[in-house]
Amino acid sequence: MPIDQHLLVLFTVTTIIAMITPGPDMLFVLGCGMRGGPRAGLFATAGVATSEAVHVAVAAVGLAALFEAVPTAFTVVRIVGAAYLIYLGVQMIRKRKEGQLDTAASGGGMSGRRAYLSGLMTNLLNPKMVTFTIAFLPQFVNPALGQVWLQFAILGTILIVLEFIVDGAVGVLAGRIGGWLRHRQAARRRIDVATGGIFVGLGVKLAVER
After folding, report:
1. What is the chain's percent helix, strand, coil content, to nearest 5?
2. Of 20, 65, 117, 159, whose Cβ has the fewest other Cβ atoms within 10 Å?
3. Sign, CA torsion 140/58/74/20
4. Residue 63 in contact with residue 178, Cβ under 8 Å?
5. How far is it, in rounded angstroms, from Cα 101 to Cα 120?
6. How far apart are CA 47 and CA 59, in angstroms?
7. What is the DSSP string of 97-144?
8. pLDDT tens, 116-155?
């Protein structure tokens, strides 16, 4: 394997620690699972993992150079991503009562397709994830071994697999708890408000951070 074994172990341990620490991705998946059940939690995780794959590819080709050369690009993408999150949150809060009819008809408050696309777009439009990936992965690449692109690919694959395992478990667990609560109308409304609040909060956090 064209990768430093010591760095590989260090990368895996560091990534696991980072993954189990609650962050925007985990909170997003948790919210989707609570509202749409285990399936929605898994699809949201798949969306986040897909965007991570894109981030790794972007890191390999050096999009960081674009953000450094054109600072406005970073700001525009950040604001668009924040606005999308806030929109999702507000819609959930506004339609918390309508959602009960949707649940009865479809068996869940959020479809797998919507959860996947939301996870994909939310994380994809977060330039901080791009810059984090660009700053993080190279620390565990050894140029002296050659095939730098392959080293990036290996590290990126490990990152995505761990993302899916950790956040997927959170999404399924939240979905099972949410599924029990969704049978109670008052609890369902609280779930929608809480989930919407999480999304709005994440959007605001993303918008104000520098």
Report:
1. 85, 0, 15
2. 65
3. negative
4. no
5. 26
6. 18
7. THHHHHHHHHSSSS-HHHHHHHHHHHHHT-HHHHHHHHHHGGGG--GG
8. 998 898 788 776 676 667 667 777 777 778 777 788 888 8
Gap between the Cα atoms of 69 and 161, Å rounded: 32
- Provide the whole-model pTM: 0.66
Other CB atoms closer than 10 Å to residue 149's CB: what's the count?
12
CA distance 25 to 48: 7
At residue 183 the predicted structure's pLDDT band, cuts being 50, 70 and 90, is low
Alpha-carbon radius of gyration of the chain: 18
43 neighbors 112 (Cβ within 8 angstroms) = yes
Provide the greatest CA pair distance for the chain. Answer: 60
Decide if 73 contacts 66 (C-beta within 8 A): yes
